[in-house]
Amino acid sequence: MRCSISYSTTRRARRCRALRPLGHGSADDGGRGGVEDLVNARKLANKIADEHQKAIDYHDKVEPKFDEIRYQIDKLELIVDDSLWPLPKYRELLFIR
Q1: I need a surface site. Which of 33, 56, 57, 69 has the fewest CB within 10 A?
Q2: CA nearest 73: which of 17, 39, 22?
Q3: Rounded to two decimals, what is the model's pTM?
Q4: Regarding the domain delimited by 30-94, which CATH topology (the fold level of the hierarchy) does it fall under?
């Protein structure tokens, strides 16, 4: 989704602002989004030949990126309408019987 809207009153603009921390914001965010950070960390870890060192790199550098993304997703789940969220929300998964 391209987020180049300058006004803040539309639903799309609100969604764009909410997605920026995940790396789906405007081009001026410098690629600092969490998804890009995760992808880049995985690319670097996958280049490591030694499996033990690769596992350490995944633990130390890749896994923390999931926590950052998870935090943003949890915030999004609270503000995005259920009709626009195609996946089960985390709180819904906790109570499925």
Answers
A1: 56
A2: 22
A3: 0.54
A4: Four Helix Bundle (Hemerythrin (Met), subunit A) (1.20.120)
